[in-house]
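Fold Annotation — chain and its backbone
Next Lines — sequence and tokenised fold

***
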Amino acid sequence: MATAKKVTKKAPAKKATTSAAAKTSTPKKTVSKTVKKTTKKAVATTPSGVKGSFRLTRASQPFFSFKITVQTVYWTILIAVIIFLQLWILQSQLEATAATDELIRSVQ
């Protein structure tokens, strides 16, 4: 049995539209130039070359000098409070231990 082939019509190909300027212009050659990269040399910085707040200055007072300031008083009070609280916690723990020991002795 022979089957009949279907005939399909193809749309005619459209012609590319070209402008008059494109027809008359000649193709341009592309020229590539090699550009030499410049490198910067590292320059050693000196303390005088440092800018901003990173400038080195002389110490206004010797490092090992002792002067009582507000911060000295603040840290002294803070340390005293911490030591007092640690001793209070230690005393409470010792009282709790003594109470449990006494309770254990009375039960036995």
About this structure: The chain has a mean pLDDT of 78.
